[in-house]
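The instructor's notes for this session suggest beginning with a concrete chain rather than abstract definitions. Hand out the sequence below and ask the class to guess, before any prediction is shown, which regions might be ordered.
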Amino acid sequence: MSKLAINGGEPVRTGPFTGWPPDDPGFLQRLQQVLDSGVWGGHGEQGEEFCEKFAAFHDAEYAIAITNGTQAIQLCLHVLGVGPGDEVIVPPYTFVGTAQAVIAANAVPRFADIEPDTFCLDPEDVKANINDSTAAVLPVHIGGMPCNMAALQEICAEHDLKLVEDACQAHGAEYDGTKVGAIGDMGAFSLQASKNVCAGEGGMVLTNDRALYEAGWRFVNCGRIMGGAWYDHRTYGYNMRLGAFQSAVALRGLELLPGHMDIRDENAAHLRERLSKIDGVAAQAFPDGATRSAYHLFIFRYDSATVGVSRDRFIEALSAEGIPVGKGYNPLYRERMFTEDLDIGSFPFVSQYYEGSIDYTQTHCPVCEHVCNDGSFWMGQSSLLGTTKDMDAIADAIEKVIEYKDEIS
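After discussion, reveal the predicted structure:
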């Protein structure tokens, strides 16, 4: 009889892993406070409290709540002066919003490769992609893993570039003992439903620069100045304010975050220890200087040559054993928004500004392509909120699939 569940065998696990968002009565209490206040527009009192506490938790001076993570990145680029004719170096292993925010800022994304073991932006390939049009570097703390910020800061200082952190998946992550998000010039977070602090939808911007903070505040508040009159609009801006109800939900999520991080850390350490004894499957590595991952994702490194099974077939078998894993991203420059519009001039936001062109069909980041096609898989952060027994089930299932790989190879 077959041993693997994909072929009719008994699965390692049949019950669900921990769900998300968390079931906590504090969310309802926070929402009730907003209802009772009668102040539903703007941030409200809880929105102001959320900004203050989010900044303090992340070792930052200032925080601006905003509608979502993509617009948080766009805000950072806008107030830093990145715009028409500029290029921004981004990794191709990320959610599409990273590049869309660059385009929304009237700039052009240029892709640099990632490191094979950390999946974070490779500083050496960043240097190779700098040219006269480069204005900023936009590293992504992928899966909640901090990038090598020291190396990127050195590069940006040498070439007079802005450094914006895409920390949308990295709530509470630490580089050299400091929370990410305000290590660079500015940083962006997402509060989307899957995130470790969630509001359904929402975002946050951090900075330690007062001038950038005030410029960003104006941008999300219709061009008003802080402390000014409601109909006094001094600069161009949008209404990108995070609503009071979403702020209340996010505030409760922030209160839960430290406890959740401790559970994820403990479970991730146990799973990493189990994986260290398995040939062909390993955990995402920590870059130089990274001291704590947020574990929004637990990303596995996969070596199909060692295991003897393709990554996709391995995922199918592991999923059948009751383990909620997926293959993750495709190389971002292979998405149709890039491949079907070969000339960057065809992008509506930048067509009137950019004189050159990038043929993204010719963009080639070999590490990213291997990682996406055959070199990794992942599971979401809520799976790490369970028990040690849950982590053992994950490792046991991996060992089982490898042991009986002949059934699927």
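Then share the key points. The mean pLDDT is 94. The first strand starts at residue 62 and ends at 66.
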